[in-house]
Automatic annotation (TrEMBL):
Keywords: Hydrolase
SUPFAM superfamilies with a match to the protein in the record: Composite domain of metallo-dependent hydrolases (SSF51338), Metallo-dependent hydrolases (SSF51556)
Domain of life: Bacteria
Pfam families per UniProt: Amidohydro_1
Protein name (database record): Amidohydrolase family protein
Residue span, Amidohydrolase-related domain: 78-428
Family named by the database record: Belongs to the metallo-dependent hydrolases superfamily. ATZ/TRZ family.
Length: 493
């Protein structure tokens, strides 16, 4: 199994092993605790029944619980697990196939790939993605729904086995790619069944989704948003991400996609829109006034987008938003860095804003505010009594964070995934030094390597960009030709 059983103790008092965290009740004494107000020292955290039970001064908590053996964690930060507010857990078998591709890759790569997945490859893809997410510090991921026809219970199974908290989307598109109408009544019935099936689950929360507004009727958009509002679930859709989609909507309806959602009554506190990169001032006001949440995906914008969402403006307006990977790279620290950098490049440089959120803003929206956007407010996202004990132990005793003058800024700009010593959800240790403690990750990777080739091979994927090695050869070849022509050399076939 991929699991390291020891980590050095920063004060030389021996070694920590994962076994000491296996108890149902834990009294933890970390160097620092990341609370809503910032990083605090001299705190103790009591975990019982999968929840944070008490957070108090060390002396007070130790006095109240003399029956417990405290676990000293010198040089460790106890912080909330990160929330990925927009993921595609069933796209992990493709990953770098999209590198260098122009926008709207879902049409040429993701839809064909997901359609090729059977129940086993759907499960493998989701489990691989869940493992990557946990390794990157995400304890929760919002899955936007899969286009695979296989039973999506396989995704829930992967979440359960890895320990990833998952908001599981069920796609309710009732218009096909060629405007062929699907059975709306059957879709609504399955949507209601999905909401009921996962209600109250320990790790899986149900959600309904429409891929993009143009693939659903106005009635379906309205109904699934209303179903989510009634059941306390979230409604997900991709919105205003690419110029092509905005222009198609304008031509077909004389409305932008976000305006269409508002017109049919699908915006509201239950709605989480992914991207919102191309938004007008009026649309920003719509998001604010309706209480709609946004999944801000800065890495996706950098890798294949047409624009960067105005996250700083959203924050100033009080628009709810969290950070999402869009399945690009499951590394929470690098995601926060990308969020800050994107705003610095698009807004800060032009306006002389050297702060661009002051560091704390991105940490907030990657955790507590992200949980709110994901429909999990009051369940996870912060270290507070009564919430699920979803947290990380992060090693602070590293050169990059020594000396420390401003911990939130340091977490955004300096922290790395390899500092994550342990990952917990529902108070249970899931990963130790990057690897699962109770299942064989090496066996999963081997199975994925064996199955991925066939899944990709049978999918009618169309790539515009060649692999990097071929691109290099083509580029070097063209340079040689250009040089030859410049010197008067003549080439013949």
């Amino acid at each position: 199994m991929h699991t390291s059983l020891q980590v050095r103790d920063t004060v030389g008092q021996g070694t920590l092993t994962p076994e000491i965290f296996y108890a149902d009740t834990l009294l933890l004494l970390p160097e620092e605790v990341l609370l809503e107000s910032g990083c605090a020292k001299h705190k103790a955290v009591l975990i019982a029944d999968g929840k944070f039970a008490e957070i108090d001064r060390r002396e007070a908590l130790l006095a109240r619980h003399p029956e417990l053996t405290p676990i000293e964690l010198p040089g460790k930060l106890l912080m909330p697990g990160f929330i990925d507010t927009h993921h595609h857990l069933t796209q992990s078998l493709g990953k770098s196939l999209v590198f260098g591709e122009p926008s709207e890759i879902f049409k040429r790569i993701w839809v064909p790939l997901e359609a090729s997945l059977d129940e086993q490859t759907l499960y493998l893809s989701a489990k691989l993605a869940a493992l990557e997410a946990l390794r990157g510090g995400f304890t929760t991921a919002v899955d936007a729904g899969t286009r695979a026809s296989a039973e999506i219970g396989s995704i829930a199974k992967a979440a359960e086995e890895t320990g990833l908290r998952c908001v599981l989307g069920y796609i309710c598109n009732d218009l096909g790619g060629k405007e062929s109408t699907q059975d709306g009544t059957a879709i609504r019935r399955e949507a209601e069944r999905h909401l009921a099936r996962w209600a109250g689950h320990a790790l899986v929360a149900p959600s309904l989704a429409v891929s993009i507004p143009e693939v659903a009727s106005d009635a379906m958009l309205h109904d699934v948003a209303a179903l989510c509002a009634e059941s306390g679930a979230i409604f997900q859709t991709h919105i205003n991400e690419h110029l092509q989609a905005v222009e198609r909507s304008l031509v077909a309806r004389r409305q932008r996609p976000l305006e269409q959602l508002h017109a049919v009554g699908a915006l509201g506190p239950q709605t989480l829109v992914a991207h919102a990169t191309l938004v007008t001032p009026t649309e920003l006001n719509l998001l604010r006034d309706t209480g709609t949440a946004v999944a801000f995906n800065p890495v996706a914008s950098a890798w294949k987008g047409n624009a960067v969402a105005p996250a700083l403006q959203m924050a100033a307006l009080g628009i709810r938003f969290g950070l999402g990977t869009d399945g690009t790279r499951s590394d929470a620290f690098r995601l926060m860095d990308a969020a800050e950098t994107s705003q610095r490049l698009t807004v800060g440089l032009a306006t002389g804003d050297s702060s661009c959120g002051g560091g704390w803003l991105w940490l907030e929206h990657a955790t507590r505010a992200g949980a709110d956007a994901a429909g999990l407010k009051g369940q996870t996202g912060e270290i507070a009594p009564g919430l699920a004990a979803d947290f990380l132990l992060v090693d602070l005793d590293v050169p990059e964070m020594t000396p420390s003058w401003d911990r939130p800024w340091e977490l955004v700009r300096y922290a790395n995934r390899d500092q994550i010593e342990a990952v917990f959800t529902n108070g249970r240790l899931r990963l130790w030094q990057g690897w699962p403690v109770d299942w064989d990750a090496s066996a999963l990777l081997a199975e994925v390597r064996e199955a991925a080739g066939a899944a990709v091979q049978r999918a009618p994927i169309y790539r515009v960009h060649p692999p990097s090695s071929k691109h290099r050869a083509m580029t070097q070849g063209s340079l040689e030709i250009d040089t030859a022509l410049a010197t008067g050399a003549v080439y013949s076939s």
